[in-house]
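Q: Sequence in, structure out?
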Amino acid sequence: MNSNAGIQELMAAEQKASQIVAEARLGRGDRLKQAKESAASTIASYRSSKELEFQSSALNLGDSNSTSSLLLQGQTKADMEKMKKEYEGNSGKALQVLLSKCCEVDLTVSKARIRSAQKAAM
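A: Exactly. Output:
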Protein backbone atom coordinates (compact mmCIF):
# COMPACT_ATOMS: atom_id res chain seq x y z
CA MET A 1 0.00 0.00 0.00
CA ASN A 2 2.89 2.28 0.67
CA SER A 3 4.02 2.16 -2.97
CA ASN A 4 0.45 2.69 -4.12
CA ALA A 5 0.13 5.80 -1.96
CA GLY A 6 3.46 7.10 -3.28
CA ILE A 7 2.32 6.65 -6.88
CA GLN A 8 -0.93 8.41 -6.08
CA GLU A 9 1.02 11.30 -4.53
CA LEU A 10 3.23 11.55 -7.61
CA MET A 11 0.16 11.55 -9.89
CA ALA A 12 -1.47 14.30 -7.82
CA ALA A 13 1.72 16.35 -7.83
CA GLU A 14 2.01 15.89 -11.61
CA GLN A 15 -1.57 17.02 -12.13
CA LYS A 16 -1.00 20.02 -9.89
CA ALA A 17 2.18 20.93 -11.80
CA SER A 18 0.34 20.59 -15.11
CA GLN A 19 -2.38 22.87 -13.82
CA ILE A 20 0.18 25.45 -12.67
CA VAL A 21 1.91 25.33 -16.09
CA ALA A 22 -1.42 25.74 -17.90
CA GLU A 23 -2.34 28.72 -15.72
CA ALA A 24 1.09 30.27 -16.34
CA ARG A 25 0.62 29.85 -20.11
CA LEU A 26 -2.78 31.52 -19.94
CA GLY A 27 -1.35 34.32 -17.83
CA ARG A 28 1.51 34.79 -20.25
CA GLY A 29 -0.90 34.97 -23.17
CA ASP A 30 -3.02 37.53 -21.32
CA ARG A 31 0.04 39.62 -20.46
CA LEU A 32 1.20 39.43 -24.08
CA LYS A 33 -2.21 40.59 -25.35
CA GLN A 34 -2.21 43.42 -22.83
CA ALA A 35 1.31 44.47 -23.86
CA LYS A 36 0.31 44.45 -27.55
CA GLU A 37 -2.74 46.61 -26.85
CA SER A 38 -0.68 49.02 -24.78
CA ALA A 39 1.98 49.25 -27.49
CA ALA A 40 -0.67 49.80 -30.17
CA SER A 41 -2.25 52.65 -28.22
CA THR A 42 1.15 54.22 -27.56
CA ILE A 43 2.06 53.97 -31.24
CA ALA A 44 -1.28 55.44 -32.30
CA SER A 45 -0.92 58.42 -29.96
CA TYR A 46 2.68 59.01 -31.07
CA ARG A 47 1.69 58.75 -34.74
CA SER A 48 -1.19 61.20 -34.33
CA SER A 49 1.00 63.72 -32.48
CA LYS A 50 3.72 63.50 -35.15
CA GLU A 51 1.14 63.76 -37.94
CA LEU A 52 -0.32 66.88 -36.34
CA GLU A 53 3.19 68.32 -35.94
CA PHE A 54 3.96 67.57 -39.58
CA GLN A 55 0.72 69.13 -40.82
CA SER A 56 1.32 72.31 -38.85
CA SER A 57 4.93 72.60 -40.03
CA ALA A 58 3.86 71.95 -43.63
CA LEU A 59 1.30 74.74 -43.41
CA ASN A 60 3.87 77.11 -41.92
CA LEU A 61 6.48 76.26 -44.56
CA GLY A 62 3.96 76.59 -47.37
CA ASP A 63 3.17 80.15 -46.39
CA SER A 64 6.75 81.27 -45.78
CA ASN A 65 8.19 79.68 -48.92
CA SER A 66 5.75 81.09 -51.43
CA THR A 67 8.55 83.14 -53.02
CA SER A 68 10.74 80.05 -53.42
CA SER A 69 7.75 78.23 -54.85
CA LEU A 70 7.23 80.98 -57.41
CA LEU A 71 10.95 80.91 -58.23
CA LEU A 72 10.81 77.14 -58.74
CA GLN A 73 7.79 77.48 -61.01
CA GLY A 74 9.61 80.09 -63.06
CA GLN A 75 12.66 77.87 -63.44
CA THR A 76 10.44 74.96 -64.45
CA LYS A 77 8.72 77.01 -67.14
CA ALA A 78 12.08 78.23 -68.46
CA ASP A 79 13.39 74.65 -68.62
CA MET A 80 10.25 73.53 -70.44
CA GLU A 81 10.61 76.30 -73.02
CA LYS A 82 14.26 75.38 -73.54
CA MET A 83 13.34 71.73 -74.10
CA LYS A 84 10.57 72.68 -76.56
CA LYS A 85 13.02 74.78 -78.58
CA GLU A 86 15.56 71.94 -78.65
CA TYR A 87 12.83 69.51 -79.72
CA GLU A 88 11.68 71.77 -82.53
CA GLY A 89 15.27 72.26 -83.70
CA ASN A 90 16.20 68.58 -83.62
CA SER A 91 12.96 66.92 -84.73
CA GLY A 92 13.67 67.54 -88.41
CA LYS A 93 17.17 66.08 -88.12
CA ALA A 94 15.85 63.02 -86.29
CA LEU A 95 13.20 62.47 -88.96
CA GLN A 96 15.81 62.70 -91.72
CA VAL A 97 18.03 60.14 -89.96
CA LEU A 98 15.12 57.73 -89.57
CA LEU A 99 14.01 58.10 -93.18
CA SER A 100 17.55 57.62 -94.48
CA LYS A 101 17.97 54.43 -92.47
CA CYS A 102 14.63 53.10 -93.76
CA CYS A 103 15.72 53.66 -97.34
CA GLU A 104 19.12 51.99 -96.88
CA VAL A 105 17.74 48.48 -96.40
CA ASP A 106 19.90 45.86 -98.11
CA LEU A 107 17.65 43.47 -100.06
CA THR A 108 20.27 40.85 -100.94
CA VAL A 109 19.87 37.41 -99.45
CA SER A 110 22.97 35.69 -98.14
CA LYS A 111 24.07 32.37 -99.63
CA ALA A 112 23.72 30.62 -96.29
CA ARG A 113 20.06 31.67 -96.07
CA ILE A 114 19.39 30.47 -99.59
CA ARG A 115 20.95 27.07 -98.82
CA SER A 116 18.98 26.69 -95.58
CA ALA A 117 15.73 27.57 -97.38
CA GLN A 118 16.50 25.04 -100.11
CA LYS A 119 17.21 22.33 -97.54
CA ALA A 120 13.97 23.10 -95.70
CA ALA A 121 12.01 22.86 -98.99
CA MET A 122 13.32 19.35 -99.71
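Helices lie at 2-64, 66-103, 111-121.
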